[in-house]
């Protein structure tokens, strides 16, 4: 970040900066260097992965149940939950509140996926619920 970068603004002026984002001295427009744009893209991808690990399993299980998808979607949801548990256990010391929220959401995703698998199994084996005998 200490080396100087040449920026070409849309107003036609060229200027030199050492920052990722800078304002054009002529028009005041904010311009980004290539490294700054790459940093933003990496941040957005990391945020999407974090959100996917945090709530992905619950939404995947819910969608599989609602759209009546096959058992592989429920198995994939359980696998995503296990992966998220593994990642958020490592983060527990630094971010305990986020980890607890992730445990609750992914635990709910496992329960929902397991109930969906049970429902699919009953449907596949044609198991009917019997009323209690008198």
Structure description:
- The chain is mainly alpha-helical.
- The protein folds into two domains: 5-32; 45-124.
- Helix content is 62%, strand content 10%.
- The chain is built from three helices and four strands; from the N terminus they run ββββααα.
- It has helices at residues 34-66, 71-90, 96-125, and strands at 5-8, 14-17, 21-23, 30-32.
- The strands form two sheets. It has a two-stranded antiparallel sheet. The chain has a two-stranded antiparallel sheet with strand order 3-4.
- A hairpin with a 6-residue loop joins β3 and β4 (30-32).
- α1 packs across α2 (71-90), α1 (34-66) runs parallel beside α3 (96-125) and α2 (71-90) runs antiparallel to α3.
- The N and C termini lie far apart (80 Å).
Strand-helix topology:
Blueprint: E1 5-8, E2 14-17, E3 21-23, E4 30-32, H1 34-66, H2 71-90, H3 96-125
Antiparallel strand pairs: 1-2, 3-4
Helix pairs in contact: 1-2, 1-3, 2-3
List keywords for this structure.
single chain, about 130 residues, mainly alpha, 2 domains, 3 helices, 4 strands, elongated
Short description:
The chain has 134 residues and is mainly α.
Radius of gyration: 25 Å
Low-pLDDT runs of 5+ residues are none
How far apart the termini lie comes to: 80 Å
Number of domains: 2
- Helix residue percentage: 55-70%
Which series of helices and strands comes N to C?
EEEEHHH
């Amino acid at each position: 970040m200490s080396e100087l970068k040449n920026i070409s603004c849309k107003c036609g002026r060229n200027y030199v900066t050492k920052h990722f984002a800078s304002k054009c001295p002529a028009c005041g427009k904010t311009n980004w260097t290539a490294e700054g744009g790459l940093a933003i893209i990496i941040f957005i991808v990391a945020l999407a992965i974090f959100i996917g690990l945090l709530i992905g399993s619950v939404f995947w299980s819910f969608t599989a149940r609602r759209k009546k998808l096959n058992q592989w979607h429920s198995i994939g949801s359980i696998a995503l939950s296990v992966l998220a548990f593994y990642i958020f256990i490592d983060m527990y010391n630094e971010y305990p509140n986020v980890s607890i929220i992730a445990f609750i959401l992914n635990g709910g995703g496992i329960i929902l996926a397991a109930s969906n698998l049970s429902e699919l199994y009953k449907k596949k084996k044609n198991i009917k619920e019997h009323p209690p005998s008198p």
